[in-house]
Amino acid sequence: xQSRCICAGLLxxxxxxxxxxxxQARPTSDPLETDTPSAPxxxxxxxxxxxxxxxxxxxxxxxxxxxxxxxxxxxxxxxPSFQLCSPLASDPLADLSQIISDPYRPPPPxxxxxxxxxxxxxFRRNGRTSIEGVGVQSVLAGKVAAAVPDSFPFGNLVIVxxxxxxxPLTLAQKLGLAPGESLYVLYAHxxxxxxxxxGDMLIACQQxxxxxxxxxxGVAHLHLETRLGPxxxxxxxxxxxxxxxxxxxxxxxxxxxxxxxxxxxxPMDLLSWEYN
Length: 276
Prior knowledge:
Number of helices: 7
Structural class: alpha+beta
CATH architecture of the domain at 82-103 and 117-271: Distorted Sandwich
Strand content: 15-25%
Number of strands: 12
Helix content: 10-25%
CATH superfamily of the domain at 82-103 and 117-271: Glucose Permease (Domain IIA)
Distance between the termini: 84 Å
């Protein structure tokens, strides 16, 4: 009887050991959305954060001084008046909801799939056959944080920074903008290179370019993104999903889109504030 107990105990230990080895060898799964673009580099950043440059961004909420150091020309002062403009010269703010071709569909944190902004497009509206060529305007006064030509996937893009002190308190509170932070608006797929330069100070409604279909756009539309984040950020370049992209361009794309340092929100929360 004692011999049988010993054998049974050894057999049980062997089974448990094999099960443990099997559990350790089983790979973890991290399925992405079916509409996610094929981008192995991005997937590796999402799945294995610790050895990548993204790790200190997520952990410490800090980035290199080259990316976020305030520019000497970026000296903001509170403005006595405030103006909120439509990003499209052809359509007032109150009509923008009628021409949304792809709404805001936020991804999970640190992911890039779905839609982090909102698209505006139309055909045969107000005497125009297409939105292509319509002037793209700065929604707010601010500083140009990026003016990048021919970037993938954004095409010709502009990012404009507006600091907390230049926004009405009620708007800042609605958006969740904290004192000392800035609001950033990205305009993408413009038909021509930006009409403004990095570091330029802009007034509200100043033209940035025209609607186009550059980058990964299949048809002409304006892609608009809005984010909250640290002040003084500049992006000399911004690019991803492209074999021609430099490491700095990829890092900037990850910083903007997936790091969580810049928190995206529905652009319509901003654009609908004035008339609601």
